[in-house]
Design a protein that fits this description.
The protein has a five-stranded parallel β-sheet with strand order 3-2-1-4-5, sandwiched between helices. Helix 5 (147-156) packs across helix 11 (264-282), helix 13 crosses helix 14 and helix 14 (336-349) crosses helix 16. It has helices at residues 17-24, 47-66, 78-89, 102-117, 147-156, 196-201, 206-220, 224-227, 240-244, 250-259, 264-282, 305-313, 319-331, 336-349, 354-364, 372-381, 396-403, 408-412, 426-441, and strands at residues 2-7, 29-35, 71-75, 91-97, 121-125. The protein starts with a strand and ends in a 13-residue tail after the last helix. By secondary structure, it is an alpha/beta fold. It folds into three domains: 2-127, HUPs (Rossmann fold, 3-Layer(aba) Sandwich), CATH 3.40.50.620; 129-164 and 206-282, Serine Threonine Protein Phosphatase 5, Tetratricopeptide repeat (Alpha Horseshoe); 293-452, DNA Cyclobutane Dipyrimidine Photolyase, subunit A, domain 3 (Orthogonal Bundle). The structure holds flavin-adenine dinucleotide.
Length: 454
């Protein structure tokens, strides 16, 4: 009897518990990926993410083919597509690794119930997080709202399991299960083709992900503590798109990092990834709703399209913000320090709602992550879990002098005329932001604004 493995955010063959379980049955295995943009509540992928997905699926198909297997691609609502493929393949067992977003969990629970009702084996596995969200709780049984006690609880829990080996051979699927043609999914930009910078910077796929992990741990991680906040130094791991797409599991990164003696600060960043996902698990509408409800009263002014455009294009006249936004546009990535500064500038100096920024990042980041992106936007905006206090407004010019002292990062991504005048006065807009915050705290709409109803 055939087994079916349904891959989602886990585009790898090593340390893949669902694939491992299917192969262990010693029967033909169908490896399926479904491009699902139709199930209720599922957030359609952004453009840069679609670009990455195309590359990662191409690499995965090659990896499977080299071991005698095939990748089956289908498109449509998973609740229809998965049972269809199960039927076509005559599969008796279906395996997948868990997802933690609200709509995704509903889709998966519905499919599991239906398959089981039909007498099939349907099993899900823990693969994408170091700790399942329901296992990390405060003494009172509630989810953690603050990072440090959360991370201490993770560190006190049983350690993450050891990674599983990759299957040496893939039992081929039955020939009657056909696949879509990946090119027909149109995941790559055509006219215009804006992806040249992405192609130059990234090689999606599991083999390149392992290369990057090795290079980071062997050569770069020693300088992580010292230089991780300096965008010009390129001292961070660049593993975020790999983890987003599951080309690497956090377990692989965790154990390799410990074996290589990587700094605890790096492991702690993996902890922030966990915290973002656990937060999403408990607050599935993280991308659309303030975690702290008092921010529903924040008096956002009418959004200025001109200000938003300038921010998106990297022409605000604020050097570090513009450099970051241009790095993002050209490569699908932005350094974490610059993400924080660019986000703070949008939310606090331009007084544009964090949801606009979150949506832009969702469309342009190759690592656009359903948990980390809204989590971090809310963190910057002050409305999130363990967020930066609202009144701590980054000064992007001071941040530039501190973290890009010789101007190398800004020069690398410099906008055309360096003399572009700032579109806002940093000091005056900071005061306006603090006044808006103050009026929110006093429960009154600000003079400039109307009540936000998000
Ligand atoms: P490293 O410093 O090498 O960190 C290792 C890993 O830890 C990262 O790959 C990532 O998986 C995780 N990590 C590090 N910092 C964070 C963090 N603050 N929150 C959650 N996980 C973290 N990260 C995403 O993966 N996807 C996003 O969509 C995303 N959106 C962001 C939006 C804003 C406004 C901000 C301020 C940050 C965002 N981040 C996001 C977090 C962070 O900027 C990136 O994870 C990091 O820059 C990736 O670079 P790296 O892999 O070299 O990081």
């Amino acid at each position: 009897m055939t087994s079916l493995v349904w891959l989602r955010d886990d585009l790898r063959i090593a340390d893949n518990p669902a694939l491992h379980a299917a192969v262990a049955r010693g029967e033909p295995v169908v490896v399926l990926f479904v491009l699902d943009e139709q199930s209720p509540g599922i957030r359609p992928l952004g453009s840069a993410a679609r670009w990455w997905l195309h590359g990662s699926l191409t690499a995965l198909a090659a990896t499977l083919a080299a071991r005698g297997g095939t990748l089956v691609l289908r498109r449509g609502p998973a609740a229809i597509v998965v049972p269809d493929v199960v039927h076509e393949a005559g599969a008796s067992a279906v395996f997948w690794n868990r997802r933690y977003g609200g709509p995704e969990r509903e889709v998966d629970a519905g499919i599991k119930a239906r398959l089981r009702a039909d007498g099939l084996e349907a099993m899900s596995f823990a693969a994408s997080l170091l700790h399942e969200p329901w296992t990390v709780r405060t003494g009172a049984g509630t989810p953690y709202a603050v990072f440090t006690p959360f991370w201490n609880a993770c560190l006190a829990a049983p350690p993450p399991r050891r990674p599983l080996p990759e299957p040496a051979e893939m039992p081929a699927p039955p020939p009657e299960v056909g696949s879509d043609d990946l090119d027909a999914w149109d995941l790559l930009p055509q006219r215009p083709d804006w992806a040249a910078g992405l192609r130059k910077r990234w090689s999606p796929g599991e083999p390149a992900a392992h290369d990057r992990l090795r290079t980071f741990l062997d050569e770069d991680s020693a300088g992580y503590d010292r230089a991780r906040d300096e965008p010009a130094a390129e001292a961070t791991s660049l593993l975020s798109p790999r983890l987003r797409w599951g080309e690497l599991s956090p377990h692989q990164v965790w154990h390799a990092a410990i074996a290589a003696g990587a700094p605890a600060t790096f492991l702690r960043e993996l902890g922030w990834r966990e915290f973002a996902w656990h937060t999403l698990f408990h607050a599935p509408d993280l991308a659309t709703r303030n975690l702290r409800p008092e921010f529903d009263r924040f008096p956002w002014p009418e959004p200025s399209a001109a200000a938003r455009d300038a921010w998106q294009r990297g022409s605000t006249g604020i050097a570090l913000v513009d450099a970051g936004m241009r790095e993002l546009w050209h490569t699908g990535f932005m350094h974490n320090r610059v993400r924080m500064v660019a986000a703070s500038f949008l939310v606090k100096n331009l007084l544009v709602h964090w949801r606009h920024g979150e949506t832009w990042f969702w469309d342009t980041l190759v690592d656009a992550d359903p948990a980390a992106n809204p989590f971090n936007w809310q963190w910057v905006a002050g409305s999130g879990a363990d967020a930066a206090p609202y009144f701590r407004v980054f000064n992007p010019d001071l941040q530039r002098t501190k973290f890009d002292p010789d101007g190398a990062y800004v020069a690398r991504w410099a906008a055309a005329p360096a003399s572009l005048p700032p579109i806002v006065d940093l000091r005056a807009t900071r005061q306006a932001a603090l006044a808006a915050y103050d009026s929110m705290r006093r429960g009154m709409p600000g003079a400039a604004g109307r009540l936000q109803s998000a």
